[in-house]
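Reader question, answered in our methods column.
A reader sent in the components of a multi-part assembly and asked whether the whole thing could be modeled at once rather than chain by chain. We filled in our standard form and ran it. Here is what they sent:
COMPLEX SIZE: two components
ENTRIES:
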Amino acid sequence: MSDIDKQPEAKLGVEQASVTGAPLVASVSRRRLIKLGTTAVPAVATLVSQPALAWHCKSPSAWGSEIINPNTSLRTNAGHQSYPDETWYITNWANNTTRSGLSWLTITPWKRFFNLYPAIKTAAGNNSSNVTIAMLGTIGIHVAGAAATASVRTVLGTGAGAGTPFQKSVITAQLNYKTVSGYAQNEMEQCLAFSNLNSMATGSYSPSGLGVNWHQTEIIQYLSENYFAI
Amino acid sequence: MWSLAFPEKLCFRSWSDEELSVVYNTLSGDTHLVESPGLEILQLLTESPQTAESLASALSGLFQDQERGRLVQYIGATLLRLKEVGLITDTSH
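And here is the structure of the entire assembly that came back:
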């Protein structure tokens, strides 16, 4: 990190970065060769961190508590951070469309999915319509009652072969979790773990500490009102 | 297997000595300082997802000592640093 210490004015203004479709790439004509064994790993540091809007969600227990007793501080969102939602809708996944009006979620969901899961991209012939329920299973996405060979986009759609509202909801929630969680604009993992979504996908889920059991209706409502699957 | 977190949203700028570069993430608004070969790794990942091994092979010319095991280890450590700041993601999960 010594190189960073030597450059206290390394903070660049945003206006110096050219925002184009293709990133500017430094030339590689260089420089002294790196000597392994005497060199620490290269410096990688965040110089300027902008506060970014994340999305709005509550844990299953918090949301469920409010449903049971509306007269709590949770009603005022005390202690919870609220941001605009930032996930793809069920229809976006079904039709591979983007969401308008978002500051950053500007690519299609399946393009993002294929970037992250090249093995599935290959298996599906780079065609999102060929991604099956079984292929999602290879990355831990579960859905009860859907045929393994069914096209995911067909299940999420409205035509022949469309799934139930519950199936669409849990598939979309898990797809969103796998593709956009963990980034500044989306903190889904702050509300629940992916294993919670797997449990919900079975159709029966018990939020911690509430002493109640959710079925499909409650699960769909939770996922919708917390922007996991709309 | 490693890939850029959001390849369409990263902007790169280098100084004249080309040892250090700046990467601006238009999604998060973060600006990162990246030292070679971190930038070269990002450039290769812009083209396609890569493993640490394939990156080591592609970048071996940047190193004096090209002992395979140490090179892969060094690249692997660099990848972890890039992941920590959110520039790349590990798609092997």
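What stands out: DSSP finds three helices and five strands in chain B. The mean pLDDT of chain B is 82.
Send us your own complexes using the same form.
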